[in-house]
Amino acid sequence: MRSVFADGSLPPLCACSIFIVTADLFVATGLNATTIHPTLIESHITNPDMIYEISKFRSGAGHDFSYDGISYAGEYFGATDATEPDSSMKHYYAPYAAYKGDRVTVPVYAPFDGTFTRVTEEVHPDDSSIVNKRLEITSADDSDYLAVLFHVNLDDAFPQILNDWPAALWPAHQPDDPSYTTDTVSAGDFLGYADMRISNDFDLAVLFSVSASEKYWVSLFDLMPETLFDSYEHRGADREDMSISKAERLADPVTWWGSRNNDDWVTLNQVPECSTFALLASAALLLAAKNPMRRRC
């Protein structure tokens, strides 16, 4: 049996799941495709120069992450829109190979000002010794938006367990961490490192709540201002390519779970390096001016 929550999702609704479902399921009618979201994202979630490719919203990368519909005591834990076709409504960030193999290289940053509202433990399905954290941070500027970051080697300054899944639903429930420095963050604050010990990528999702019982997954890039997206655009990315529309996914259902599909990914151009000419030109300027001058390229 696959470890529940190890890949960042809530468990499937099946008799074999060890997550005990006792709640009602809610079916929403769907989010309007023209909904305009606020540009809440104020920081990259990692160093973009370390990233080779990013999966598209509604891709077939990873596993189905579309409709949860699970609730307990009136709280819904994920998207409630059952009209969404099966897809991955998150973004996977795959670093270059040089940055994989450990959990202390690829930094993870807070995307906006906010407060930790849940920290749970994740266990890798292929190696139970690989344990990391799933974080939920609610935006300070708009509490209708929640960022979920997966597979993080969380810094000790933050609670290591907080508001874990209810014990009535989750047998591995743990009590809150009683000792930590802070549960609030500012955009760009260091959260820890992506756990890349045996993984190809790490991931992030954004949950938008219309009400307590109506929630939708939305793309991080729909909340990102141009000033931040420029870092991806300069490497060949087009904002429209970061997401697959609901209509497109309905017309082309995912049938390749567990397999690589290049159409699921936006591969970024290699980080530009300074040319030899630029270096020589800068050196000539330095010699001519005989004044300190920062190299430009």
What descriptive keywords fit this protein?
297 residues; eleven-stranded antiparallel sheet; 3 helices; 13 strands; 9% helix; disordered C terminus
Could you please describe the fold and organization of this structure?
With 297 residues, the chain is mostly beta strands. The protein has one domain (48-272). The chain contains 3 helices and 13 strands; from the N terminus they run ββββββββββββααβα. The protein has helices spanning 226-233, 246-251, 276-289; strands at 51-55, 71-72, 75-76, 91-95, 107-109, 114-124, 127-139, 145-154, 184-185, 190-194, 202-211, 214-218, 265-267. Strands 1, 4, 5, 6, 7, 8, 9, 10, 11, 12 and 13 form an 11-stranded antiparallel beta sheet that branches. A two-stranded antiparallel sheet has the order 2-3. A hairpin with a 2-residue loop joins strand 6 (114-124) and strand 7. The radius of gyration is 21 Å and the shape is globular. The termini are far apart. The relative contact order is 0.20.
Q: Report the β-strand fraction as a percent range.
A: 25-35%
Number of domains: 1
Described by the principal axes of the CA atoms, the overall outline is: globular
> Structural class given helices, strands, pairing?
mainly beta
Q: List low-confidence stretches.
A: 1-29, 275-297
In helices, the fraction of residues equals: under 10%
Order of helices and strands: EEEEEEEEEEEEHHEH
Distance separating the two termini: 52 Å
Number of helices: 3
Number of strands: 13
Average residue-wise pLDDT:
85
Characterize the biggest β-sheet: 11 strands, antiparallel
